[in-house]
Amino acid sequence: MLPGLTVDVARGAVTGLLGPSGCGKSTLMRAIVGVQLVDGGTVEVLGTPAGTPALRGRVGYVTQAPSVYADLTVRENLDYFARILAAAEGRVDAVIETVGLAPDAGRVVSELSGGQRARVSLATALLNEPPVLVLDEPTVGLDPLLRRDLWDAFHRLADAGVTLLVSSHVMDEAERCDRLILMRDGAILAADTPAALLERTGALDVEGAFLALVSGEVKR
């Protein structure tokens, strides 16, 4: 349940959706993608109601569970989805490089680690260069170096005009975002830039800002 929730996601920026597990992040993302039943209110993406057919090729969505075929190789998966999406020539090689899977392109997905499988799912979402990317905890289980590389890739996409909504329950990833939406118990505590949140709460980091908002030390 997400009662009375109102929020905007900025175009051409990396917006972090942060909060503890079970706070409603995935439900909100599913509503934006258009696969979550919304009992009331409206959800619009690029000026169009979420879930409409016109948005299917314009919104890339990566779930927490990898959505690829375990019995195919990385490249076979991407070749298959590229044909379905009518992706431009060369996109398979490009997305393999973007997610850092070039050395593993010929490996069967079932042989990969959980983090590698998640990157294959991310690569499929990038194939048709959607203007909106909704990523549900894409860096879970990844080592710090790869997490850094993926966040760098997210910002390159944003610099090219892509809108990214990236969820995480790891507060130290907040500083990598252009804007933040902090959630708890189905409600939005704050939506602002990291710098503005720190100034508003007087905290030293986003985790401290989050705790200050939860405790009521700062007006939301």
Describe this structure in words.
By secondary structure, this protein is α/β, with parallel strands linked by helices. It is built from 7 helices and 8 strands, in the order βαβββαααβαβββαα. Strands 4-5-6-1-7-8 form a 6-stranded mixed sheet, with helices on both faces. A two-stranded antiparallel ribbon has the order 2-3. A hairpin with a 2-residue loop joins β7 and β8. It starts with 13 loop residues before the first strand and ends in a 5-residue tail after the last helix.
Strand order of the largest sheet: 4-5-6-1-7-8
The total count of strands amounts to 8
CA-based gyration radius: 18 Å
Distance between the termini: 20 Å
Give the overall average pLDDT: 90
Strand content: 15-25%
Helix content: 25-40%
> Which sequence of SSEs, written as H and E, runs from N to C?
EHEEEHHHEHEEEHH
What coarse outline follows from CA principal-axis ratios?
globular
* Class based on secondary structure composition and strand pairing: alpha/beta
Contiguous helical run count: 7
